[in-house]
Amino acid sequence: MLLKSNREAVNKSDDVVDFVRKWFDDQPEYERNKEHFWVIGVSCRNRIRYFDLCHIGGVQESVVDPRNVFRIAIMQNATAVVLVHNHPSGNPNPSNEDKMVTDRLCKAGRYLQIKVIDHIILGDPEMNYFSFADEGILT
Fold first, then answer.
1. 127 class by beta-carbon count within 10 Å (0-12 exposed, 13-18 middle, 19+ buried)
2. What is the pLDDT of residues 44-81, one digit of tens each?
3. Helices marked H in 1-139
4. Average pLDDT over every residue of 113-132
5. What average pLDDT does range 85-99 have in this prediction?
6. Distance between the two ends of the chain, CA-based, in angstroms?
7. Taken in order 62, 47, 139, 65, is the CA torsion positive or negative?
8. Fewer CB near the terminus (10 Å): N or C of the chain?
9. Which one of 3.40.140.10, 3.90.580.10, 2.30.42.10, 3.40.30.10 gives the CATH number of domain 2-24+32-124?
10. Domain limits of the chain?
11. What share of residues in the chain are helix, strand, coil (percent, to 5)?
12. pLDDT for residue 34
């Protein structure tokens, strides 16, 4: 699924969470019980160029391929991306795998000159989330 938009800007993690939750909270519960990995491609002014559901995983993990993350970013001329995924458990704290995936995607983005400006993990529906950028640990 690929949604295009050039109107909304995402300037902080709350903006990203609000944008993704508008879509995700309308999904049936059986879909919300799987791990979803989205990529939001943005322009140099942080205007959303596209929103892509890059991968749907199982209850405990989602294997993310850097080629799939950056393929659409290249085609849509995005200058940066925001990574977002959910934890069906409701606990937004990053796992070691989350940290390794974030590091790998940041490195891949540097080679492609497409900056990863945040990786947000959505927790329970009470707007609980974790932002790598807000915590200052984005590599």
1. exposed
2. 998 999 999 898 886 565 578 999 999 999 999 999 99
3. 13-24, 29-32, 66-75, 96-112
4. 90
5. 92
6. 28
7. positive
8. N
9. 3.40.140.10
10. 2-24+32-124
11. 30, 30, 40
12. 85
Which pTM was predicted? Answer: 0.90
**Which position has the token pair 């959303």?**
48
Q: Tokens 């977002």 map to which residue?
A: 84
**Average pLDDT rounded to a whole number, residues 80-97:** 93
DSSP 57: -
The sheet carrying 129-131 orders its strands as 2-4, 48-56, 36-42, 80-86, 115-122, 129-131
d(CA 40, CA 76): 11
- The alpha carbon of residue 97 and the mean position of all alpha carbons in its chain are separated, in whole angstroms, by 15
Which residue type sits at 34? K
